[in-house]
Structures are given as structure tokens and as C-alpha cells.
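Support case: fe (ii) ion complex. Customer-provided input:
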Amino acid sequence: MPTPSSTVADGGNRHCHSTLALALSLLVVPCFALLAESGGIPTTLDGPFPPVTRAFDRSLRQGSDDVPLTDPRLAPRVQPPAPEQIALAASADADSLWVSWVTGRAQVGANLAPLDPASVRSEVWYGERSALDADADAYTHVARGSAEVYSQLYPYPGLLNYTSGAIHHVRLRGLRPATRYYYRCGDSSIPGGGGLSEELSFTTLPATGAGSYPRRVAVVGDLGLTGNSTATVDHLAHNDPSLVLMVGDMTYANQYLTTGGKGVPCFSCAFPDAPIRESYQPRWDGWGRFMEPITSKIPLMVIEGNHEIEPQGHGGAVTFASYLARFAVPSKESGSNTKFYYSFNAGGIHFIMLGAYVDYNRTGAQYSWLENDLHRVDRQATPWVVAAWHPPWYNSYSSHYQEFECMRQEMEELMYKHRVDIVFSGHVHAYERMNRVFNYTLDPCGPVYISIGDGGNIEKIDIDHADDPGKCPSPGDNHPEFGGVCHLNFTSGPAKGKFCWDRQPEWSAYRESSFGHGILEVVNSTYALWTWHRNQDAYGENSMGDQIYIVRQPEKCLLQPTSASSLNCSPGGCPSPMSSDSSGALPTFTSGQLFQKIFVIILFVCDRSKRTKWFSHVLDQLALLRLHFPFLW
Ligand SMILES: [Fe+2]
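Agent response - structure generated as follows:
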């Protein structure tokens, strides 16, 4: 006869068996689906990886010529006053979006009369129905903004000036997340409709929250406008991203004299007598037209590089005029109030775009803003924090080696303590993915740094490594265009006491000199798939240069307090104006989070002392499953 206690135990076990069967049935199908999906792809949990270098394929060209402005992809396709160079940019969150475009003709010459930007309206007419499928009232909303012009002036004999068309920026508000909208932009008051664009469409980003992510985030840097650049953009478009990050150095307009002419890989070599590095602004207009098929449908998020500095005027006192005028970014929305650095949310990702060519010191405004921004991140709403800036901190190529060491020394600790997950940079014209690292030391809680400045610009691919014989730059090389020089010799490890390593550094996991772009696909709050697509690879899912699952370990890598804790925030972050927490909406769970909760319930209901041997075995298998496939949780 069973004892009362054993009856309870047996009844409990029967209850556990049925609960477990339900849980297993919920787990098995998605497990096998994800196993099939992730088969063979390494994860950062498998690292740190032994450094790997894939040599430059000498059958490929190191560079190619710029596409001329007469090319149909760069030449004007509409006549004024019709809008052109239409581009979208994310705002603070999914419910708002920037639309930008240009009207009127830019002028080049000695004495120019700038356009009056107020003479043309800045309107966006939009709605959830296409005018092609609906009645004349398809556009249920209209948003209005403003326009500006900028000039690039060279008060030197023989040089020409430039003044832009009217550059319009309009912010749409009250959009529904993950929803397709149709729109026309321009000036509706112009008779005959000639002041409006054709109908275009976009799909808004997913709402801020850990349960949804942008489908694909493309990352590209140092793009330029060569034959290689066009291959990169074609490839990128084929991969169908829902958001594009451009990590600086966009047009390379500053490779040209004001009088135009052919681009050169080394401006200072070709034009040693130029008083300041001139820049031929019509290249920007050609670039805007070339990018329009993508940027009019997908948000393009830019951050300035050194090729955007473009000094002008007496002694180069005025800088970044084109970058500041042409792009809308969520600077006010993110509290930075400058286009040189800002942040925004896209689903469960908080993006931080930093400026390397403005003050980055701990006493400066950018550092203070970054500190506050990081504290405001709600990791329950945006588990992922992805940062981007132009020059890399970790770089084993000879080009730009330790160039922005000062910036790293100022900001790295702050980023590390706040567990920034991924950092994208460009500047070096090659690809490199780092092992998780902090302060040049392998660290499982350091960010994954990725250099992706291989977009294809006219300056050609970088192939020399600082550890190649005779390729270590001298400390006098690689001066940054902004900030100081903080070159250091390593204080420990195989390169102790040396400026360069004698082999590929241990923090460099993979490097290769090829043109390409990357795609980031965040799966859930734990797993994100990163794929580097080389231009020479055939288009398709199974052809790529590098691929890895980047895995977050928040339970292992806890957030660490910093000085901004005076903001009186909880360890999870401060209330954010970009957080969805204030909406009052009920919390939602991903499927992985749901499985986790079921698992915890099973463990709670079925006390270990009451488990049968079979049941204990199954629970152990579940624990193993969780260990090896944490992205399920
Ligand atoms: Fe650069």
C-alpha cells in the first residue's frame, strides 16, 4: 500500500509528466527548426577564436574608377521643381520618420545666388492606402517641414563655389509600427502636380520592445561611388534590408577639385598645391540620386566620417556643411541636439551613433550625452545596444592603425560597463571582426567590434597588416583628422613592450581584404546573426565571407554602475522617452521567453526530491538544451 507521502509524490509525478509532455511538444518543433537554421554557424560562445587571415585575392582589382556624373544613375532624372534625392531616416522610434529631398538645381561658379529655400513648400502626403488602388483621398495625412540651402565656398583664385538646391526635411509623426505607408513629397501648390514626387512607399520599423526586431539591418562603410561601390549597393539591395547603417565616408566628393575632374586615390599626392583640400559638391548630388532607389524606401542612418569634414572658407574654418544640411537624423529626439551624434530605437535594438570628429573627451558634451543615453536604455525594452562610429578602435591593418586610440581611451570603459553588444566602424578599407575584447584584453563581456569600411570607394582596398614584416606604421603615421595622438605600446601578452604585434593579434578573430557589406539579423533578445557578404560571392543565402551568431549573456555580464548613477536609475536603465514602458501596454513575451517561463514552472511544480529517474533525466536534457541553445530562452 502506498504511503500518503508516496501517493502525493506519484500524483505529483503524473502531473509533472503531463506538464512536461506539453512543454516538450511546445519545445520540440521550434528546437528542430532553429537547430536546422543554426547548423554549422559558430557563435561567440565558441570563442575567443584563433585569429584567421584570408589573403587578398590577387585576381580581384584593388580598386576601380568612379562612376561619372553623366551616368544615368547619377544624372538628374526629373526636372525642377520635382523632388529628387529622396531619402528616409528613422526618428526616435517607429511612430515617426524623416523624409528628405532636394528641389531646384545646384549651381557651380564664381559668383552664385543661392536659392530661397522658403520659396518651395516642404510637404509629405501619406496614408496606408496607395492612390493607385484607392480613391483620390488615399493620403489621409500631410506633414510639413522646412528647407535649407548650403554653400561650399573657396575664396581662392581659380577655385569655384557651389550652392545647393533646396534641401527639405519633414518629420512624419503618429505612424503605426511595422506598417506600410504610401507617400508623395514635394510642393502640392505647384499647378499640375509637377511639384510632387511619384508615389513611393515604406514600411515603418517595429515598435520598441524585446519581442520584435528589424528584419535585416544592412551595414556599409566608406562607400564612395565607384564600380565596386555600385556592386556593393546592388548586393545590399538584393539582400532586402529594412534599415541601412552607413558608418561614414559616403561620397568621397573631396577627392575632386572644385572644377570637377577625375577622382584620384590620393588627393594630396595629386594636388599638393591646393590651399585646402577642395571638394566637388555635385558628387553629393550624384550620390543622392544613385542611392534614391534604396533610400526612398528604407531608412538610411548616417554618421560622419573624415571625408565629410570638407573644410571651406578662409583657412577651412567651416566644415561638415554638406553632411549637416543633407541628412535628417534624430538628434533632437535623442537629446543630443547635434547631428554629430545621436541615438534611436528599432524594435528591440537601441542604436547609438557617435561622432569621432567632434569632442569625445570625458569632459565634453558628447561624453555627457552618451553617459545619459546609456543610462536611459531600458534593456527590458531594447536588450540590444549597437553602437557605430567611423574610425575603429580595434584594427590590425597598417592603415589607420591606433589612429583613434585617444577616443578609445576616453570612451571604452563607459561602453564596456554598459554592456554595449556590437560596435560597427569603417575607415579602414577592409573587413575585420574582433573577438570580444576590452582594453586590448580578451573579455567575454566586451563588445564584438566589426570593421566594415570595405564599401568600395576610390581609395582602394587596404591589404597590409601592421603585423606583416615591414608594415608596422611608425608612431608618426596615421594622424587623425581630429583629436590627438595616443599611440601606446602593449603592456602585456605576446606584444608586450611593442607598438605592433608580430602576428595577427589575439583580439582579431577574422580579417580579409575584400569589398562588401554586412547584414545583422537579430533573432531574439539573446541571439543575432551577423553575415559579411563579399561582392565576389554569388548572391544568395549560402554564399558569404563571414558569419557568426553574436550571443548576449546578460546574466553573466551584468551592467556595472558608472558615475551617472546619480540619475537615480535602476540597474536595468532609466525611464526613457523612447521606451515603450510608458505606454501602459501589457508586457509581451517572445516564444523563447514563454518556453523559459514554462521551464521554470516545471521546476517549481516538480520538486527535485519527488522526481522519478526518467523525469530527472528529461529535466537534465532540458537544462542541456538551454545551455547549448540559449537563443531559445
Ligand atoms: Fe575614413
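Residues 222, 249, 305-307, 390, 427 surround fe (ii) ion (CB under 6 Å).

Case will auto-close in a few days if no follow-up is received.
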